Amino acid sequence: MKLVQERAKTKAVGESLIIQTAVRLMVPFIQLFGLYVIVHGHYSPGGGFQGGVVLGASFILLGVAFDLKTSLRRFSLGANAVMGNIGVLIYAGIAVLCALLGGLFLDYSALVRIIPLDPVEWRSLGIFLVELGVGLAVMSIMASLFWDLSSGGEMDEGL
Amino acid sequence: MKTLALMATLITGAILLYGTKDFAPWGDPDSPPNRHVSPYYIEETIKETHVPNIVTAVVADYRGYDTMFETVVIYCAGLVVVSVLRRTKP
Asked: Model-level pTM?
């Protein structure tokens, strides 16, 4: 009991064991659902933007329930920058690759020259690759927007 | 300067509102988008892309440019916030 009282004194205002435990249990499922929304965009409502926002929200939830440091330990600033850039690069790179391979810009059926599949099948696959890039970019940018705006760019305390 | 900006905003808004007068009526089945564009997507999407979700096919394939620059807009927003606010080394 005394331990709990001491811990309650040293803890920051607003920190709650119930919320932290609930968030710790929920975050893996939220991230799994985000991946599902990205991957299942072909068959159900969803896609890169929505799934990316769900994935980014899981890191924001960590930052709100614990503190900014916990969120940053799970998703470092370097990885964040790299993933945001790679996401946009995947989209633009696939578009340019299609043009270089002899098709039109963003005409995914030109990718047949790399892996021989049905051109129609490649259009479906190209949509998936592009959505993956959008998801990566949106996830890391949502997380970095929250980190920067909540701490004023200091990356120390957060909300 | 502020009144000038307000005037410019109001005039642009009035021109845009005037432009909406020429839009097709809401839900009109005989308007050009509903006669040419929508039936094409509904009939050809599965044949051309093998994607059952028409919205995804339109967003990422037929209107790929739009989505690409949407991503770039979000990327630019993130880049600006990082470059204005962040003070730690990444």
From this structure: 0.83
